[in-house]
Design a protein that fits this description.
The complex is a heterodimer of chains A (510) and B (373). Chain A is an alpha/beta fold and 510 residues long. Chain A has 18 helices and 22 strands. With 373 residues, chain B is mainly α. The chains are: A alpha/beta (510), B mainly alpha (373).
Chain lengths: 510, 373
Amino acid sequence: MAENILEMKNIVKQFPGVLANDHVTFTVEKGEVHTLLGENGAGKSTLMNILYGLYSPTSGEIWLHGEKVDIHSPRVAIEHGIGMVHQHFMLIPALTVIENVVLGMAQNKQILDLDKAADEIVALAKKYNMKVEPYQMVENLTVGEQQRLEILKALYRGADLLILDEPTAVLTPQEVDELFKMIRLLTSEGHTVIFISHKLNEVMTISNRITVLRGGKSCETVLKGNTDKHQLAKLMVGREIDLQRVEGLPDLGEIVLEMKKVECMSDKGVKALKGLSLEVRKGEILGIAGVDGNGQDEMLECISGLRKVTSGTITIAGTDSTNEHPRNILARGVAHIPADRHKRGMISQMSIKENLMLIDYYKEPFSKNHLLDWKVIEDASKRMVKAFNVKTPSIETMGGSLSGGNQQKMVLARELDRDPEFLIAAHPVRGLDIGATEYVRERLLEERKKGAGILLVSTELEEIMTLSDRIAVIYEGEIMGVVDVYDATVAELGLMMAGSRKVELDATTY
Amino acid sequence: MGGNDLEEKKSSGSKELLLKLGIPFVAVLAALLIGAGVIAFIGVDPWIAYKSLFMGSLSNVNSMAETLVKTTPLIFTALSYAFAARCGLVNLGAEGQLYAGAIFSTTLAIYLTGLPMIIHLPVAISAGFIGGGLWGLLAGWLKVRFGASEVITTIMLNYIAVHFLSFLVTGPMIEPPGNFPQTPQAQLSAILPKIVPGTRLHLGFIIALLAILFYYFFLWKTTTGYETRVVGLNPTAAEYAGINPTKNALLAMFIAGGFAGLAGTSEILGIQLRMFQAFSPGYGFDGIAVALLGGGTPVGILIAGILFGILRSGANMMQMLARVPIAIIYIIQAFVIIFVISSGYFTKAYNKRKLEKQAREGGTNNGNTDIDS
């Protein structure tokens, strides 16, 4: 058995109000590729930032090569041979490759000897079958080249333990293959790699061992040979779910949302949706299951007019709404509980009443002839705050000073008060405590009963399975399949979340 | 527990309000103290210096009127900075917009003849607003169309406006026969009447007060003003609500420029009566200070404007009686701003302490803390 190069024991990291790491234990053997798997928010990045000295743990110990170490800054981490390649590269585009390599190195003298460093980096690159042009500007490099440069930079600093934080997120499939080749070469040379990801296919390809983090805790470390995508998916999203649905069959109405072969680009300029089709009927909840980052956000932005659809059509309540202005879409009886309430859903530095009028302020009775009617707005705000149980001293309180649960209730109040025919609910209970979660779920079911069509996006499979009537699984911008909740199993959903199509699964089962 | 919670929120709310009101007050006091130190250092009794400062600005009708004369352009330029800031824009171009407004209004005030005052004066004033507004709009357009930062473009446009005015008063608009680099005097029908007889206080001050009212009314009573504030505080939420951030940015820059244009207009049509080179002693930049000290609120801008007016109008008396150079006033002004700006550090420290306290007490205020997994 190989020696343990790294042991992180009982790591706890407490942020104000959030326990990001809860007694995490994580052990890495020399020369392996060890994947840290988990959903967004599971605590992977926090754990790695602790290892790299960016955060200090609230409690817990780090042992490197059998010795207890205190890593209080990245400089110390680098001295201990730890290198980290962040998801967002730490490169300066306006400088050359070699200038980026030597940047911040302790042994830099007053006068830099760039030529010597350039020779060294070219030699180092050769060793790993890479080509570098030391005097090229970094801004002229492709994303894949920049990533290789980041790895080289770490190696140049003497790293033997490399942390790669979601390295494949920005790469094309060909670049991923190249990266994997390089990782294998590195481990064969005795380096150790910690690979952070939530893409199961890649994880199964590259890892020797896999540690799954869930909700800030390490739940299991498995050998690749002893596991499969199915088990990993289950570990990631939680145990088999005990379904306790009290809701009966939906009372289906007409189609309220129809997406046909919709495509769009992500912010990074790659295709985020690849011919996605689905439909939602009035009176039902369609749950979108899937690992975060598979196109959910882009899909919702396309529907609400916030992102350009490059091909395909979106029809809302019988009207073509492809690339329509957001306000016109909202005016078609659409309500939207956004995924990130701080980014889109609310204005922290405005009062509750000013937050509650955000969508309908320009309409009567909130305003007439462009003049706001504060009396009406205040009365409506008081009514909403009461009806949705928002705990606040007054409607003049700043939105940002409410607790997370009450902020979400405020957003919910605004959106549901509009009596929507079609409701988009993205992660409606993320970050809420149990009480608020229950409350939000009840309100969603109530809307369903009233006949609204609801599109529910969540990465919590349990939530999807408790609330939805039908479940569509999204993977890399496509719908892998749609199942009725009563026919759905966690096993099947887990496989679809990892990229298997429902038709393929059906073919193998029967 | 619930009741306790509420109490706590309330008391921390009033603490925050106190902090908000206290900051400008403490800033001014501290700046005056440092000013006193400097005055003592040059060998003058600070008490006598400050006494003559306030005598020169507040002791009789004439000196008070003079204080308000100095206050008038500061209110306009402060509104200019504050309005753009409400929309999330940094307008450092009030000085240039002031000149642009002056060029527009003075041109009409000189060359339009034969109109009664009731028409001529409003036309000239509106032209001043539009002139400044267009100058501001240009910076807004550069930002929207090319992504050019308004911080840079507004500063650069200042130079263009200042020097274009120099060109006008030495060439095309020079007063015949051309002995002095200045324009002819504005028509009597386009001059802002005095509102206190025997002083220089003119109608421009009333217009400044109306501008403050407009600022308040527009931002807090109209749908467009609400949009402006939403865009300023959270542009992505504005998009989500169907508000067009581009349109609002352009409008905000136009109105902000318009306010500054009125500063130039009232200064020419109320005090100078003709244009000459560099007629503004930096009102555009002092306006930023006034807006910051006033916290961008209507009442705050009025009070801060008057305070700066007091410093400016009393400075001469201080120089004459106490032999303290006027430059002391600039030192005091600069310290006021440094203290107001660095107060952000103290509020941050206060908020951090509050958050830590919550965390220790196991608070569940997790919605406010964004942590990357």
